[in-house]
């Protein structure tokens, strides 16, 4: 089975978690990993391979793509990197004897044996994917309906068809004539070229946060029973959008799944769990709703202590959540203290920040982190 991914130096860690999740659920003992990149050194390549040296059935191939090759293709959305464009070159990069490949983003956790999707006959189709049912990009690209637009984070590519029908040339031609329509990089290019002519996978093979926020869009095409199955038992958890599980404050519904894998990987046991955590001390969570509780659970999985919760609701003061006390803001912010970190875990974070400024709280020793 052939797996491809695109990464840069920063994403080595996240990619390794994704690969570990594949290993954890895949029965087939022969996996070929094709890593597309622009900035990895030989040392980086050896480091990634060494993470999985205990799995002899896993082999790596690295492909460096020079910048001039992808300079024609635009990247617009601020949470995307140029590496997302590399998948457009897979048919040219991989040896001709490889007929198909599963492309998978690094912000993904696999929960089911990939052989179950690998063995699907994609026949005459250029690729297989899961529809991206929320949003308006299908209209921007002039597609007939929502079901014609797919998310490119997890796709099965028919490399033979891409080669014989010269799809890279089609991608370049579409980009040259439709640059103003391209918002999500190669995903829009792929959809603009294929125009709905691709095999629909079961929606469990690319479950994003949006499924929980846009249930009505899902039910336009699938049953209530299918929704319950997909939302509770995803085969692929895709942490799409800007804020990822490795950001302290993120709205990813199943971010705990990422940490369950990471904490068991020996390579990262002494590494910071979150990008922002190094300078965090005496952590308090502002907000006792579901988001605040989710953040607490994520920290608890990683054995990071939360000193307390803070809430503006006086009825919650003195109560305990997960055996952690809820304080009024004045008791924490107006008292002499060592440096603390305040995580504002609320959809009203902007209002909370403005209110803190009006109340003249002493924030000299407070590091504030809020959702972007």
UniProtKB/TrEMBL annotation:
Gene3D superfamilies: NAD(P)-binding Rossmann-like Domain, Spore Coat Polysaccharide Biosynthesis Protein SpsA, Chain A. The keyword Glycosyltransferase applies. Keywords: Glycosyltransferase, Metal-binding, Transferase. PANTHER family: GLYCOSYLTRANSFERASE 8 DOMAIN-CONTAINING PROTEIN, LIPOPOLYSACCHARIDE 1,3-GALACTOSYLTRANSFERASE. Signal peptide: none annotated. It comes from the Bacteria. This is Glycosyl transferase family 8.
